[in-house]
Amino acid sequence: MKYALIGCGRISPNHIEAAKNNHLEFVAMCDIVPEVMQEKSDRFGLEAVHKYTDYKELLEKEKPELVAIATESGKHAAIALDCIAAGCNVIIEKPIALSIADADAIIEAGKKLGVVVCANHQNRFNKSVQYMRKALEAGRFGRLSHGAAHVRWNRGKGYYDQAPWRGTWAQDGGCLMNQCIHNIDLLRWFMGDEVEEVIAYTDQLEHPYLEAEDLGMALVKFSNGSYGLIEGTTNVYPRNLEETLYIFGEKGTAKAAGTSDNIIEEWRFADELDDPDEVKKRFSENPPNIYGFGHTPLYADVIDAIVKGRAPLVDAEAGKRALELVLAIYKSAAEHRPVKLPLESCSTMDFVGRFDK
Questions:
Q1: Under CATH, what is the fold of the domain 126-285+321-351?
Q2: What distance in Å separates the CA atoms of residue 293 and residue 303, rounded to the nearest whole number?
């Protein structure tokens, strides 16, 4: 299967390794900064891969079957729509877009042209998360009470200086949209997907050089009667502390922890079907960075979806749901009121000037 990568920045090594691990025919890569692209080519032995600075030229000349989009967030939607129009299946790095309108356009285009569209929420493929999900689908939690998603990380000025688009409303958003959206996706996925209402606060406390938030807290009311707590920040001193997901039910409690939900720390179920210590041992990993090991199985799922003509585990609708919840949090915080879902329309650009001093 002919594969191309558009965007060779911070997350691109995970995509390159996933493509290699899944034995894709890596035909082309693209970045508007040739030096960045060449560094990845040298590091991963991609000398034979064709290099482009214009992705439209890549699409026209190479005609890839699968494209991964790993550019700045604000460009995801336009590139994805061009790839879909060219008949390509796509993996879109999170977030799938920065507006409800763009997410809807991607969903509609994918359906119309019959291509697979995947939102790159790779933490769904963590061994810990997969085992928790299996317990959920088996009904082991019983009626869900509430869940909690915490992302307690650190991002300093050096991180934002590396890429000026970070922390801007036009190309990114703040900590909730960039760093926390993976865990927000997991919380919504586990708690039944359908959200009734959100009430939230966001603030910018330690990053005055950004446009968007560095702290967000929200209470979510799910349509099935359960609740969710979201806490996201890039202000934790002096380095990343944890990313945790708690799921509480009438018959079960589970906690995925570590830097990105890779470790099972709590496993308590009334049915006692498995030994908690054994579960913690078997379904925990220690990845080298916050991105974990999820890209390779996500790619495998997308390839299988293309071959079998089915939807991927994390489809475009899932990408929209994660985006929608972040935008609802932004809207609630900005307007100082509860916000009902679904959102008819909303964009990060609606919040320009939110933290201007």
A1: Dihydrodipicolinate Reductase; domain 2 (3.30.360)
A2: 17
